[in-house]
Amino acid sequence: MSGRKRRVFPDAFKREAVDRVLTSGLPIGRVAAELGLHETQLRRWMRWFAEPGTGLARRPATQAPTPSPADLAAENARLKRELLRAEMERDVLKKRMARPVCKLDFKAGVRTVCVNVSGMSALWPPPRWRSARPDPHKR
Question: What is the rounded radius of gyration, in angstroms, for the C-alpha atoms of the chain?
Fold first, then answer.
C-alpha cells in the first residue's frame, strides 16, 4: 500500500494541543486546522488527556418535571373531548361536501345543473338513461 506515512505525535504535543483548546476558547476545528490535524483526532485527544470536568461547556441536562397522574388524566380527558369534537366536525363537513350544489339552469328545462366538489357538472335529478337516450347498440 503506497499511502501516506502515519504520523506519530509525542504525548507532550498532544497535551499542549488539548490545553490550547481548553484555554483559548477557540473551536476545536480551528485549533486542529492551525496544528495541521484532523478535528476528530484532536477530539480523541481531548477525551484521552483532558481531566474530567474540564471539557468544553455543554448545555446542562435539564429535565422537565414529571406531571402528576391527576394532571395526566385531566389532559387525557381534555384530548379525548377535543378529538370527539374534531371527528363530529369532520363528519358534518363530509356530509355537506357529499351533496351536490345545484343551480337552476333555464336552458335545461325542468332539470337543474349541479356542480359537485370536484367541479364536474351533472343533471339533477339524474336522467333515466334507458328512457332518455336510446341504446345505440339495440336495434
Answer: 38
DSSP symbols for 69-86: HHHHHHHHHHHHHHHHHH
All three cell numbers of 17, joined, read 494541543
If the chain, 139 residues long, is cut into consecutive pieces of 10 residues, what is the mean pLDDT of each piece?
Answer: 79 90 88 92 87 57 79 95 94 75 53 55 54 60
What is the pLDDT at residue 48?
87
45, with CB counted inside 10 A (0-12, 13-18, 19+), is buried
Task: Compute the distance between CA of residue 105 and CA of residue 20 in angstroms, rounded to an integer.
Answer: 85
How is residue 4 written as a grid cell?
501516506
Helices (H) and strands (E) in the chain, counts: 5, 3
What pTM value is reported for the model?
A: 0.37
Residue 109 per-residue DSSP state: T
Q: Rounded distance, CA 92 to CA 105, Å?
A: 28
CB 31 within 8 A of CB 24: yes
Long-range contacts of 23-27 (CB under 8 A, 24+ apart): none
